[in-house]
């Protein structure tokens, strides 16, 4: 150190820095440690140094008190496998290296000792390894816990089998992660004493737009590619699968690290383990094929009026949905909007433009896939219920979509990042606020810990009356409002977490300073995505589908 300057040695060479930018470290804290609460000093630099040094030595796990930090190794580490589970059941924490198994073991032991449900919350940005960590925790719980000798269903195998199904239907390749979760899940493993009795999955907000459109290097949901790579020619004929689908052409289809054929086999096997009937399996795949053929319906336009010059895909769609007898009405509902003239009993049809017809078609595809996903979850829950009840104690594992910053961020990233803000806030409340309040109450001396409180960012997004979510809802209620109007209203909010940018920035953007970084959001299509309405005529028609799964989605349509 020399005056106000500091000489810093780094792997990339020596640097000269302002002394105030540099944090000091005790030499003894530079030694790798399993639990960072043992360090004399604890700040960002020393945490990063410790994790980096351990990672260089192939160690991906580090404790920080009751929490575990896990670094994505992007490779299988055989020494960290299931053979360690017996050790984690019997030995003390201090006698074993840090591992996710310990987190799972503690949850299990606490459930048994205190007779209270437990939760494991996994957070991190997109691609950091949350879903893989969830699977490791589930593996531990299903292997380590006891089984009822009289149980005829293998609930443990069924719990593990939910992974391929949920990933096939709810995960997709994004620019950040080849297997990115596009929905959030909270899976509860229910217990009666030490025995697993069943499980329950809650799911949150599947990303819908991906079904009809993907960014240039992203993909649609894995299941579509699995169908094409894995189905036999006979199956393809049965479900009317062809080789070219418009909904699958936007993204880069071939991903070297994904083996769609192998994954298809796993998905099919998981359907069997989970006890889906052949008829249910058929109905799921007739529906998926119908969604793909719906996407292949092309419109043309003359005098602002859309038409369907080639009706083969529409005909396939109607066949697959069991709607062939109403082909003409389905076609009309895709091309026109029914209007009842006030004071008259007659109904007239307003023709849709090409853009409106495409929006109408895509809204139907999104709704069908979204409802199918929810149907699958409720079916899984029926199968997994076993002997569990509402009162059963459980260990819950939370795995949501991670924080995202893309080049183009839309309403989906806004929702995902909002969910992550809430999770971060929950963490702050639990780890810092509540803990420090407890110290104060009990008169324990302690040094106040400064933490990044994101409550005001949450106010900006949701809490206050003048929040972004409220503004979106208000604007969507008013006829004729556009994305531009929405942005103008958002820009009126005054918050240190809202960055209105520079006058030279593109006019269709705003920025939010999230806890994990500043994200530039583009306002295009927010109003349409939020309204997400489906033509009522289509709903009424689909209620008559001979596919019972589809008919159940629209049971309330009138
Ligand atoms: N413990 C691990 N061992 C080996 N590979 C891993 C591990 N964790 C993650 N990976 C690799 O990283 C990829 C991304 O991990 P994962 O899908 O779990 O991320 P995520 O945090 O769930 O992301 P998202 O928020 O996008 O869903 C995995 O497909 C896998 O290749
Ligand atoms: Mg994930």
UniProtKB/TrEMBL annotation:
The keyword Translocase does not apply. GO terms for molecular function: actin filament binding; ATP binding; microfilament motor activity. InterPro entries: Kinesin_motor_dom_sf, Myosin_head_motor_dom-like, P-loop_NTPase. GO terms for biological process: actin filament organization. The keyword Nucleotide-binding applies. Keywords: Actin-binding, ATP-binding, Motor protein, Myosin, Nucleotide-binding. Signal peptide: none annotated. ATP binds at residues 124-131. One of its GO terms (cellular component) is myosin complex. SMART domains: MYSc (SM00242). PANTHER family: MYOSIN, MYOSIN-M HEAVY CHAIN. This is Myosin motor domain-containing protein. It comes from Arcella intermedia.
């Amino acid at each position: 150190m020399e005056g106000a300057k500091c000489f810093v040695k780094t792997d990339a060479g020596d640097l000269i820095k302002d002394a105030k930018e540099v944090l000091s470290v005790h030499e003894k804290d530079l030694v790798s440690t399993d639990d960072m609460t043992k360090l004399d000093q604890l700040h960002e630099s020393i945490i990063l140094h410790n994790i980096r040094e351990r990672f260089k030595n192939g160690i991906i796990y580090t404790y920080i008190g009751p929490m575990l930090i896990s670094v994505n190794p992007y490779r299988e580490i055989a020494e960290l496998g299931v053979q360690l589970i017996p050790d984690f059941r019997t030995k003390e924490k201090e006698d074993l290296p840090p591992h996710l198994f310990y987190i799972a073991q503690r949850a299990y032991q606490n459930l048994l000792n205190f007779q209270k449900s437990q939760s494991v919350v996994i957070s991190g940005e997109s691609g950091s390894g949350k879903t893989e960590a969830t699977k490791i925790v589930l593996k531990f719980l299903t292997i380590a816990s006891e089984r009822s000798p009289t149980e005829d269903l293998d609930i443990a195998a069924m719990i593990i089998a939910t992974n391929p199904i949920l990933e096939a239907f709810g995960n997709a390749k994004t620019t950040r992660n080849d297997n990115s979760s596009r929905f959030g899940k909270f899976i509860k493993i229910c217990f009666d004493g030490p025995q697993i009795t069943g499980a329950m999955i809650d799911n949150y907000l599947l990303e819908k737009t991906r079904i009809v459109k993907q960014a240039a290097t992203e993909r649609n949901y894995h299941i579509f590619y699995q169908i094409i790579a894995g189905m036999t020619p006979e199956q393809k004929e049965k479900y009317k699968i062809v080789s070219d689908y418009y909904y699958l052409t936007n993204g880069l289809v071939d991903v070297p690290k994904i083996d769609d054929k192998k994954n298809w086999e796993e998905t099919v096997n998981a359907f069997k383990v989970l006890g889906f009937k052949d008829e249910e399996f058929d109905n799921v795949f007739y529906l998926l094929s119908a969604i793909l053929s719906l996407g292949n319906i092309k419109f043309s336009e003359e005098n602002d009026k859309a038409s369907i010059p080639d009706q083969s895909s529409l005909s396939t769609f109607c066949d697959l949905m069991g709607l062939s007898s109403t082909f003409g009405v389905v076609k009309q509902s895709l091309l026109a909007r029914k209007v009842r003239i006030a004071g008259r009993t007659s109904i007239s049809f307003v023709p849709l433009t090409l853009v409106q017809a495409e929006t109408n078609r895509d809204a139907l595809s999104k709704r069908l896939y979204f409802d199918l996903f929810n149907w699958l979850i409720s079916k899984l829950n029926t199968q997994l219920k076993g002997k569990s009840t509402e009162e059963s104690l459980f260990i819950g594992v939370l795995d949501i979509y991670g924080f995202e910053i893309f080049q183009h961020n839309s309403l989906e990233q806004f929702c995902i990042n909002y969910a992550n803000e809430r999770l971060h806030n929950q963490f702050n409340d639990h780890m810092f606020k509540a803990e420090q309040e407890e110290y104060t109450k009990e008169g324990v001396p302690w040094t106040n810990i400064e933490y990044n409180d994101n409550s005001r960012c949450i106010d900006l997004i949701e809490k206050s009356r003048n929040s972004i979510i409220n503004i979106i809802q208000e604007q969507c209620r008013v006829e004729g409002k556009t994305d531009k109007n929405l942005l103008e209203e958002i820009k009126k909010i005054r918050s240190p977490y809202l960055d209105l940018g520079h006058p030279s920035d593109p006019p269709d953007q705003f920025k939010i300073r999230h806890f994990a970084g500043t994200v530039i959001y583009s306002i295009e299509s927010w109003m349409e995505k939020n309204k997400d309405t489906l033509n009522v005529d289509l709903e009424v028609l689909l209620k008559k589908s001979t596919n019972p799964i589809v008919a159940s989605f629209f049971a309330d349509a009138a």
